[in-house]
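Deliverable D5.2: sample structural annotation.
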Amino acid sequence: MSGVSTWVSHVRDRVWSECDPAAIMRGGDDEAPRIVAALARGFLDGEHHGLASVDVDHVVAGVVAATLGLGPLQPLLADESVSEVMVNGAHEVFVERAGRIERTDARFDDDAHLLHVIDRILAPVGRRIDALAPMVDARLADGSRVNAVIPPLAVDGPILTIRRFVHVASTLDDLVRLGSVSSIGALELERLVTSRASVLVSGGTSTGKTTLLAAALATASPDDRIVVLEDSAELPLVHPHRVRLESRPAAQEGTAGVSMRELVRNALRMRPDRLIVGEVRGAEAYDLLQALNTGHRGSWSTIHANGIEEALLRLESMVLCADTGMPQVVVREQIARAVDAVVQLERGTDGQRAIAAIATIDHARRGDVSEWCIESVYEAGR
């Protein structure tokens, strides 16, 4: 075996296979390079490499860079125009820029290289992925959200998705400037906040729900105590009295998980003026509904749905799936009493994220049937 690059690959593979990334990273950003360098030199000393001392230094430097860096993802994550990175196996890397997805020239050496980078990303946040737990969600220190899936679940090789925390807008004025909403729409959003309306922010994936939620709630009174509940803490809300809680999945080491439903129940004991659920997606919908109907007005949440009525139907189905025994007619009436408005967002073919409509919600009964009365108060382009 000869050549600096060949020895870098060889020693790198030994470091990856014989050392725990989490243990290396526990040394911190300053100590980790020294740990990897010492390991690399130790491995080289045990082999007849025939390298000059200067080449040994190059090999060690290469191993440190390969072990502690993010490989081909490094330049992509350094590009501020990239809002999402999608890795579909070792040789297919896509990014999203300005709402559009494009393929890049970035490639990993092989699946082992990609798996190492995934471990490298997860190690600082105390998460791990392996054959026993082949799927993981995590939040990076900068607020970016990471999802990884590996074989046997990922059929064609490891899959990595990084939704970066990109500071786009923090106020309603910013949204107006970006063309996401008109001045009239911004005033309507501010009115919903100041009147303590309870609101669902609805839309598809990557339509700007979290950004809108933060911008709207920035107009809340500084005296309000806002308790934010999320699966991955990412809401960039700037407020003087904000409390954040994050759910926790069960770990394979036996650490018990904490569900969003448990967080909602606990948050009610924290004296919230406003309860913010980053996304309602399961049985916690029932507990949120009870909170909204028992004095916690002015609460907001996001939900994945293609329209205003679809958002209400999704919320209804989630409550019914919570095994509470409530009949549909009661659930529908409680939703109508709890949810004052729905804000629907859409992303155009040009990548532009914008508010499509805002509607208020009421209810009416016709015999034994409870119906939603949806009244549009804002539509884009009108």
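Annotation notes: The longest helix spans residues 28-45. The chain has three domains: 4-68, 72-163, 172-379.
The annotation will be released with the project's public dataset once the embargo ends.
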